[in-house]
Design a protein that fits this description.
This is sucrose-phosphate synthase. It comes from Tindallia magadiensis. It catalyses: beta-D-fructose 6-phosphate + UDP-alpha-D-glucose = sucrose 6(F)-phosphate + UDP + H(+). Residues 245-428 form the Glycosyl transferase family domain. Its EC number is 2.4.1.14. There is one protein chain. Helix 9 runs parallel beside helix 11 (304-319). The chain contains 20 helices and 16 strands. Helices cover 46% and strands 13% of the residues. The protein is globular, with a radius of gyration of 23 Å. The strands form 3 sheets. It has an 8-stranded mixed sheet, sandwiched between helices. Strands 11-10-9-12-13-16 form a 6-stranded parallel sheet, sandwiched between helices. The relative contact order is 0.13. The protein folds into 2 domains: 2-219 and 436-468, Glycogen Phosphorylase B (Rossmann fold), CATH 3.40.50.2000; 230-433, 3-Layer(aba) Sandwich (Rossmann fold), CATH 3.40.50.2000. It has 503 residues and is an alpha/beta fold. A hairpin with a 6-residue loop joins strand 3 and strand 4. It binds uridine-5'-diphosphate-glucose and 6-O-phosphono-beta-D-fructofuranose. Residues 19-20, 26-28, 30-31, 143-144, 189, 257, 259, 288, 290, 331, 334, 337, 358-363, 366 line the site of uridine-5'-diphosphate-glucose. 6-O-phosphono-beta-D-fructofuranose (F6P) binds at residues 9, 24, 26-29, 88, 120, 143-144, 149, 259, 261, 263.
Length: 503
């Protein structure tokens, strides 16, 4: 089979040069690369269609095509939206150009896919357009839905219009709704994503009758990076008792690793740490974020909201006298990240992620695979990673409760047995449940069931080649450029009704 992946945001390159360095370069890239490679290893032809960026700041995204050397998955870069890098919220008006570029590529190369997987709302709407023109079936994988982000970025009456515009929410929700409706399959990482995230009031009306098209495909971890060596166990056993050390370097580290997006709520974790003197006396906090060369003096490359978050973090460190207890680290690859996790695990470290909402959280399962007990947000998919029947594989916390976060961390820091228990549970859970091979098996099975009738598609291909009118996308172009008033009102009414309901 030939399978196409649609990821219009760009940012793929064979060396994974900038993962998490910018807030747009996150888990979606990891997910798509790992899944594409796993499908390729199963013998399929796989192409990732993304954006060509000709920008001196990101020289790795210029070439028309590139191949991942170990697997042969092809990255195809389509020029659209001009040359310069654009943050994802600004890409919407150019998506019709992206789709036209892909069709041109198919016509020129004859490399027509048998199935298309689409990612995030922008990939999803591109899939809707491609499907309308060519009839090729597609799946939608949301990664993160706009509605949960809207709930968490603090939509208030006074800031409503500004936030709607800054995050292009009306266009994003419109695109997501169409992608959900038209896709042959919706891949979700957890059952919770289907039963809660997709049931949000801004989408719920789409799913009353027809919800058979959801397929749960949990993602995986790359085991060649994220693993735990048993010798580390020895080190843990040998380390001195952790009772109030005189040297801070001897203390365990609590590590938080994510993109610097305000919804990851790194500032919430700092607040929790600041609120608990005993925790400060027993552990250090290590913040792994990329993008700010030196957080103490330069973060000009970040998006406005990320700059604000970084400023908030630095102000808190100052205000609560946390210097010397909180450190920043920049890790330039997943290999380095994994090695850092293992080192911290050898000294009874803990991973903590306090996102206001986390649809799934690859970072959580990766940390577990390296032997770190995890304390993570209870908002989102974490439940399904960490709980099954009465068994617990990590600790869930309310990300807005400093007390819950700090007490849960302290509970593990203070109690060697508890640390060992979650360490072992985490390793077991990832081994048994989260592998990219099994994600690829699920995609393969579902894709095989949804292939288009070959004869029908031949005719469609012929038509797209010869008849340019079939590539008329003006009805999408208009609302991708200027969000529909109806959609803005739909969103506004939802929040007004909800507020009234609350009262
Ligand atoms: O220095 C670092 C720090 C992190 N990472 C990687 O960045 C990824 C982050 O992914 P994730 O923790 O899943 O967060 P997001 O970037 O927010 O990803 C979105 O998409 C993911 C895939 O669908 C979902 O799991 C998330 O919940 C969703 O928010 C992980 O693989 C990390 O290994 C690095 O490569 N280097
Ligand atoms: O915060 P948002 O817009 O919901 O986006 C999360 C998404 O952002 C990205 O980091 C970049 O698109 C993706 O990896 C992830 O799926």
């Amino acid at each position: 089979m030939r399978i196409a992946f649609l990821n219009p945001q760009g940012n793929f390159d064979a060396k994974d040069s900038y993962w998490t360095e910018h807030p747009d370069f996150g888990g979606q890239l990891v997910y798509v690369k790992e899944l594409a490679n796993a499908l390729r290893k199963k013998g399929h032809e796989v192409d990732i269609f993304t954006r060509m960026i000709i920008d001196p700041k990101w020289p790795e995204f210029e070439a028309k095509e590139e191949i991942y050397p170990d697997t042969g998955v092809r990255i195809v870069r389509i020029p659209f939206g001009g040359d310069a890098f654009l943050r994802k919220e600004l890409l919407w008006p150019f998506l019709t150009e992206y789709v036209q570029g892909i069709i041109k590529f198919f016509c020129n190369t004859n490399d027509w896919p048998d199935f298309i997987t689409t990612h995030y709302g922008d990939g999803g709407i591109a899939g809707v357009m491609l499907n309308e023109i060519t009839g090729i079936p597609f799946s939608f994988t949301a990664h993160s839905l706009g509605a949960q982000k809207m709930d968490k970025v603090g939509i208030t009456e006074s800031k409503f219009d500004e936030l709607l515009q800054r995050y292009s929410f009306a266009t994003r929700i419109h695109a997501e709704r169409l992608a959900m409706k038209e896709a042959s399959v919706r891949f979700v990482s957890t059952l919770q994503e289907k039963t809660k995230q997709y049931q949000h009031g801004l989408y719920g009306d789409l799913f009353e009758k027809e919800n058979k098209k959801f397929i749960v495909a949990p993602p995986g971890v790359n085991q060649s990076y994220f693993y735990y060596e048993e010798e580390n166990f020895e080190k843990v056993n040998k380390t001195r008792s952790r009772d109030l050390s005189e040297h801070r370097w001897d203390l365990p580290f609590i590590i938080s690793s994510s993109r610097l997006d305000p919804k990851k709520n790194v500032s919430g974790l700092i607040m929790a740490f600041a609120s608990n003197p005993e925790l400060q006396a027993r552990a250090n906090l290590l913040i792994a974020v990329r993008g700010a060369e030196n957080p103490y003096n330069d973060f000009s490359e970040l998006k406005e909201e990320e700059q604000l978050e970084m400023k908030k973090i630095l102000d808190m460190i100052q205000c609560y006298h946390l210097k010397g207890k909180v450190a920043f680290i920049q890790l330039f690859s997943q290999k380095e990240l994994a090695s850092c996790y293992r080192t911290l695990a050898s000294n009874r470290g803990i991973f903590c992620l306090t996102s206001l909402y986390e649809p799934f959280g690859l970072a959580t399962i990766e940390a577990m695979a390296c032997g770190l007990p995890v304390v993570v947000t209870s908002n989102g998919g974490g439940w399904e990673i960490l709980k099954e029947d009465s068994e617990s594989f990590g600790v869930l916390v309310d990300p807005e409760s400093s007390i819950q976060i700090s007490e849960s961390l302290l509970g593990i820091v203070k109690d060697a047995e508890k640390w060992r228990y979650f360490h072992e549970q985490g390793l077991k859970r990832v081994r048994e449940r989260f592998t990219w091979r099994s994600t690829a098996d699920t995609y393969e099975e579902v894709i095989s069931d949804n292939l288009i009738n070959k004869e029908k598609i031949k005719g469609i291909r012929q038509q797209s080649k010869t008849n340019d009118k079939r590539i008329d996308l003006t009805h999408y172009q208009s609302w991708l450029q200027h969000p529909k008033k109806e959609m803005e009102n739909f969103i506004k009414n939802y929040y007004v009704d909800r507020k009234e309901g609350d009262g």
